[in-house]
Amino acid sequence: MTHDLDDVCNRLDDIKKEIKESRFVFWPYLTGFFLIPLLFDWTGDLWHSKARYAMQYDVPTSSITVADKPHDCAFLAPPLGEKHCHHERVVTVEVVVHSHDTSTNRPIVSYDDGKTWAWNDGYAGPSDRHVSVYVGWNKIDE
Questions:
Q1: Are residue 69 and residue 138 in the same domain, yes or no?
Q2: Alpha helix (H) ranges present in the chain?
Q3: Would the CA dihedral through 79, 85, 86, 87 be positive or negative?
Q4: Which end of the chain is more exposed for a tag (fewer CB within 10 A), N or C?
Q5: How confident is residue 22, by pLDDT bands cut at 50, 70 and 90?
Q6: Starting from the edge strand earliest in sequence, which strands make up the sheet with 64-66, in order?
Q7: Alpha-helix residue ranges (DSSP H) falling in 48-137
Q8: Is it the case that residue 37 has pLDDT exceeding 70?
C-alpha cells in the first residue's frame, strides 16, 4: 500500500513541476495578449495629444479642448455586448479675427480666418487673431 501512495505522490510532484514550467511559457503570451492592445490605444492617445495639436496649429495648449471619449459603444458598457458602432475623432479649428473697418473704424469680426466679416459693435479691443482647437467625437453606426 505504501508503494502505491509513493507513486501517487511522485506523480503529483511531476504534475506540479509541469504546471510550473508551463506557466513560464504561458505568461509571456498572456501578457502580450493584453499589453499589445493597450500599447496601440496609448500610442493613439499620444498622437492625438494637446502637445501635438499645439505644435501643428501653433497655439498654446490652453486654446485646445479635448473631449473625453464616449463609452456608449464599448463592448463592456451596459448592456454588455456588441453595439455595432464606434467613435472617430473630429478636429475643429476655429480662427477668430478681430479688426476694424478701414472706412468707418467700426469693429468687425471674422469666424473663418478673414473670409467673411460681420460688425462687432460690442468689441472695443485691439485687432487680434485667436485660434482655438476642439477635438470631439463622432459616433459611427456600423
A1: yes
A2: 2-47, 50-57
A3: negative
A4: N
A5: low
A6: 64-66, 128-141, 85-100, 107-110, 118-119
A7: 50-57
A8: yes
pLDDT confidence tier of residue 24, bands split at 50, 70 and 90: low
Same domain, residue pair 43 and 65: no
Q: And the C-alpha cell for 22?
A: 508551463
The single residue listed with the C-alpha cell 479635448 is 66
Q: How confident is the model at residue 67 (pLDDT cuts 50, 70, 90)?
A: very high
Summarize the confidence of residues 94-111 as an average pLDDT: 90
DSSP class of 80:
P
What gap in Å lies between CA 44 and CA 71, rounded to an integer?
Answer: 16
Q: Based on the domain organization, do 1 and 28 belong to the same domain?
A: yes
Q: Tally the domains of the chain.
A: 2
H-helix segments, 48-128: 50-57
Q: Do 139 and 74 touch, CB atoms closer than 8 A?
A: no
- Is the confidence at residue 16, as pLDDT, over 90? no
For 78, the grid coordinates are 451596459
CB 11 within 8 A of CB 19: no
Domain encompassing residue 70: 59-142
